Amino acid sequence: MRKLILFIIIILAVTVLDQATKLWAEANLVEGQTRQVWGDFFQVKLLYNEGGVMGSSLGGSTFYLISSLCVFAFVVYFLYVYRNLTIVAIPMCIIAGGAVGNIIDRIRLGQVVDFLDFDFFDISIGSFHLERWWTFNISDAAISVGVVWLIIYLLFFYRAPQTQEVASAEDSLSA
What we know:
Distance between the termini: 44 Å
Number of helices: 5
Number of domains: 1
Number of strands: 5
Largest sheet: 3 strands, antiparallel
Strand content: 5-15%
Structural class: alpha+beta
Strand order of the largest sheet: 1-2-3
Oligomer: single chain
Order of helices and strands: HEEHHEEEHH
Low-confidence stretches: none
């Protein structure tokens, strides 16, 4: 029960932080105008994104709402499956909170509020050139952090459980 309460608190904290910052952005920023916070590196700029992550446009807002709801359902399922493995459950909660924040925007506005604008390193791969990163929000950041956390865990810390047959075979080899 304690873990369930912790998971709900994490999801709600991410969602509330996301929605509060988006409401602040809508109340204090003019759409499309840039306000420098830390020179060119960090700026705030209110944008409304009907598409998906990194400016993708695979369909309309309804497509992205349905996709987001499906992703959220999968995340909640995996959160349930891994509820006893806190190192996996926490990033799943962070991802779920981010998904809820963007789902609220899609239901409320038909699009997502983006306003965080960072100029990280440039990327050039073949004919693709990215000189300034995409504008995003707290939900997007939470989803990214949760996914990176899971990738690091899976690559460096996860140990696949051994089946009984494999364990028995290894025991007989060592004897």
